[in-house]
Amino acid sequence: MSSTPPPSGAPRPAEVVQAEIRALWTHRDQRLSDAERARYEALVEEYAAAVRGSVTTAA
Question: What is the pTM of this model?
Answer without folding.
Answer: 0.72
